[in-house]
Amino acid sequence: MSRVVVVGAGVGGLASAARLAALGHEVTVLEAAMRIGGKLGTYERDGYVFDTGPSLVTMPQVFADLFDATGAPLADAVDLEQLDVACRYTFPDGTGVDLPGRIEEIPAALDAALGSGTGTQWKAFLDDAAAIWDVAEQPFLRSPIGRGTLAAMSSDTANLTTIAPWLSLRQFGARRLTDPRLRAMLDRYATYTGSDPRRAPSALATVPYAEQAFGSWYVPGGLRALGAAIADRARSLGAEIRTGVRVASIEHDGGRVTGVVTAGGERLAADVVVANADASQVYGELVQGPAARRRLRALRRATPSLAGFVLLLALEGLPAELRERAAHHRVLFPRDYDDEFDAVFGVGRYARWHGGGGPRPVDDPTVYVTAPQDASIVPGGEAGLARGEGAWFVLVNAPRHDPEHGADWDRPGLAEAYGRRILEVMAERGLDVRPYVRWVETRSPADLERSTLAPGGAIYGTSSNGSTSAFLRPANRGPLAGLYLVGGSAHPGGGLPLVTLSAEITAGLIGPA
């Protein structure tokens, strides 16, 4: 039996613990925070309950695989409900569409809402994206990445033509999408990896395909139930999960890990260490030596992902018309999407070399609203819903916290003023909830950095900006024998399904005890 220490109890770490315990390893999970889940956070106040990270489940088969591999099926542990409307989009010209949660219904819905032919355009794009999915899913999303991965995928001319790696996501979509509203819909999927659609690779077309092909799902009561279920599965297999324990260093000798040392001075011996922490923290703080420094230099060549600014809105007395306009997920697009990406990444007219001063909060951002119609997350339950109670999570893309080179989110008054600006933008776009706000909590990128230890609050570690960006993302196998990385900053990327796949890949690399 090998001794395994998992550093971090995010979903990637918990899934790793469950899989490795099922393979017969002795597993201990150490989490710095007092709660599990990592970015899959929850906030409760006055009877209102908010998911503070992911707000839906996509690719449910990934979680089904996890539970099947470790015991009883997913359905025995978590209730998943498929959304009939995956997202309600509102465009700058005032048009909008309720995008169905089932892929076969999407073309007709687009034609009815946006005009004849738009459904045909989107279906043609999804067909192209499905072809990329067929090529890339197994060798990239479900397998370790290595020096030969790109060469192997590029050696087949048909595969190369299908993926078209020389095109950005926006360029890839433009081959099929002539309607600017459809292009905006596609652009937003780059932000799922913290990226700029003008620089992100064509392979990210698989993100909307996967979401629409496999559906958008919600967990009643909030997605925290999914993290709790994975933790329960790990514990049932013998894993120990300890919260409030911060790892200060990962020890190694002769090119092999030997254990970890906590901030309190406790040493835990280990044959294997699985780091569910941001890769820059792993190689910049937890592991010392030349191998770690080389990995850190490689990380610094990549563009950090964007961050997010969040409002948690406790609402009361919402009138029926506002409740009806608040689908579970809603996206309110700006007039100038490019300006948003320029501001967040500090390029274009915001570039320092151009005198623009670098990254900054977006004045007219895209607004993402999650407004679950879930009686268990508002005070009063069903009666509370009926009288207009709401626990809304509002997100906008934001530059990472970087006081020296970019946005200083700790500057006095900035977060509060920006929160007011977001409410103004929502009102300007037909979703004015200001008269019904009981209270507001703001969460800036600086707050995210402090709560999750993600540098700058960068949600996904590194972005996918650049055609080879995916191959700059840290591999799951570290530079020391016995060291592995899982989570959003490691291969294959961020988001609930991908961090869960990182655990599957890593467990496969480690193997049975």
Structure description:
The chain has 513 residues and is α/β, with parallel strands linked by helices. It is built from 18 helices and 19 strands. A 7-stranded mixed β-sheet has the order 7-6-15-16-17-14-18. A 5-stranded parallel β-sheet has the order 9-2-1-13-19, covered by helices on one side. Helix 1 runs parallel beside helix 10 and helix 3 packs across helix 4. The longest helix is centred in the first third of the chain and has 24 residues, at 118-141.
Provide keyphrases for this structure:
36% helix; Amino_oxidase; 5-stranded parallel beta sheet; alpha/beta; 19 strands; globular; oxidoreductase; oxidoreductase activity; FAD/NAD(P)-binding domain; 513 residues; FAD/NAD-bd_sf; 3 domains; 7-stranded mixed beta sheet; Carotenoid/retinoid_OxRdtase
Helices and strands, with pairings:
Blueprint: E1 3-7, H1 11-22, E2 26-31, E3 42-45, E4 48-51, H2 60-70, E5 81-82, E6 85-90, E7 96-100, H3 106-114, H4 118-141, H5 147-155, H6 157-163, H7 169-174, H8 180-188, H9 206-214, E8 217-218, H10 224-236, E9 240-243, E10 247-253, E11 256-262, E12 267-269, E13 272-275, H11 279-286, H12 290-300, E14 307-315, H13 320-325, E15 329-332, H14 337-345, E16 367-370, H15 381-386, E17 390-398, H16 414-428, E18 437-443, H17 445-452, E19 483-485, H18 496-510
Parallel strand pairs: 1-2, 1-13, 2-9, 6-15, 13-19
Antiparallel strand pairs: 3-4, 5-8, 6-7, 10-11, 11-12, 14-17, 14-18, 15-16, 16-17
